[in-house]
C-alpha cells in the first residue's frame, strides 16, 4: 500500500497540491474542515471556493508576470488554471471566473479522482509523522495557528486582507454608467465591454472622499495591528494617505471614454467587474473596506450610477496569517524543525489566488516525488514559480518579510536588455521567453525521469 499524502486545507493551494500529487500516482487525503467548521468568509464546503475577488488577474503571458504564472501552471497540467479557463467570464485582459461553478468543478474533479479522498474535520495539531502539506491559507484556524506558533517559536505575522462589495447589476443606472474595458482591451465585444464604469466629477469625487474618511469603521480586536498588505489596501486607508491616492489607483479615469458625455473627461471612475456567468452580479473593483455595513451603503450610493444600488454582499476585512518563511522553511518548502511537514499557499507569504495555487503545485510535486523516491529537479529560479519560491525560501529579507505577488522585480536581471520604461516591453518579453524555456525543460526532465523508471 502506497504512503498517503495528507493535505490540510482545500483552497487554491491545497486543491492544486492534491491534484498534482494524485496525478503522479500518490494517494491523497484532503483535510478540509468546512462545512463542519466554517469561517466568516466562506459560504460553502466546496474546494477552491473564492472568498474575495473572482479574478485571477492578467492572462497576458508575454508582458505580465501573473499571466506567465498562468502559462506555467497550464503547461504543468494545473487543475486551477484549467478550471478557470473553462469557467471564465469576459473581463478585458483579465481571467475572471464564475465563482460558484468554478468551485463546484474543482470539487467534482478532485472527488472523482481515484487517488483522492476528502475528510471533513479540523486539524488542530502539527503531526510528528507522515507526509503533510499545510495549505490553510489566510484563515488558518485559531487552534492550528497556536500549534504553528508553538512549534516555530515566533509570533504569527499578520496583515489584513479585504473583501470588495458585490452589486446586483439590475440596480445600476446605465443612463449614467457605461460598459467598457480600460483601453478597450479584449479580442471580443464581450471582453471590450466587460466592466461597468461610473464617472465622477471633481466635486463628486471630493464629496465621496470626505464621506469615506468620515464613515464609521469596524474597530480592530484587542492586540491586532493594521499591518496592511499594500496590494490589497482598504479604500479608506488609501484615502487617508492622500486625497488623490484613489484617483491614481482603483478610481483612475485613464483609458475610458464616457459615451454619455464624450467631450468631458471624468475626474475619477469607479469600475465594476462581472462576478457571475449570468451577468447579474458585479463587484466594485479595488473597493476593499473596513467601513461598517450601514456606512458602506451610504457611501457607495454616492457613486454616480449606484444611487439606487442593492448589494448582494458588502465589503469586509479579516486577519491574514502567514509565516516568516525565509527563517522557517527550507528550499523544498519543508518546516525546518519538522521536515515531514510542508507549507503551501498564502500562509507561506505569497499573495493572491494564482500565487497560492502555484505554491500548491510545487509543494504537491515535491511531496509526491519524495514519497515515490523520485528525484525532482530544483525549480528554475528564472521561472515565475521559481522566482516566488526563491522569495519565500530566502530571497526576501526576513526582518521585513511581507506577502508578495509575483512580479518581474523578483526575476534575475537580463544582460543586454534596455532598462527603464522605454525598454520595458522588450524586457518583459525576454523575461517570459526565458521563463517558458526553463519551465518547459523542467517539466520535460521530470517526464524523462519517470519514463526511465
UniProtKB/TrEMBL annotation:
FAD binds at residues 9-14. Residues 5-374 form the MnmG N-terminal domain. It is an enzyme of class 2 (transferase). Its main location: cytoplasm. GO terms for cellular component: cytosol. Coiled coil: none annotated. One of its GO terms (biological process) is tRNA methylation. Keywords: Cytoplasm, FAD, Flavoprotein, Methyltransferase, NAD, NADP, Transferase, tRNA processing. It is found in: Cytoplasm. NAD-binding protein involved in the addition of a carboxymethylaminomethyl (cmnm) group at the wobble position (U34) of certain tRNAs, forming tRNA-cmnm(5)s(2)U34. Catalyzes the folate-dependent formation of 5-methyl-uridine at position 54 (M-5-U54) in all tRNAs. Belongs to the MnmG family. TrmFO subfamily. PANTHER family: GLUCOSE INHIBITED DIVISION PROTEIN A, METHYLENETETRAHYDROFOLATE--TRNA-(URACIL-5-)-METHYLTRANSFERASE TRMFO. NCBIfam families: gid_trmFO, PRK05335.1. This is Methylenetetrahydrofolate--tRNA-(uracil-5-)-methyltransferase TrmFO. It comes from Citreimonas salinaria.
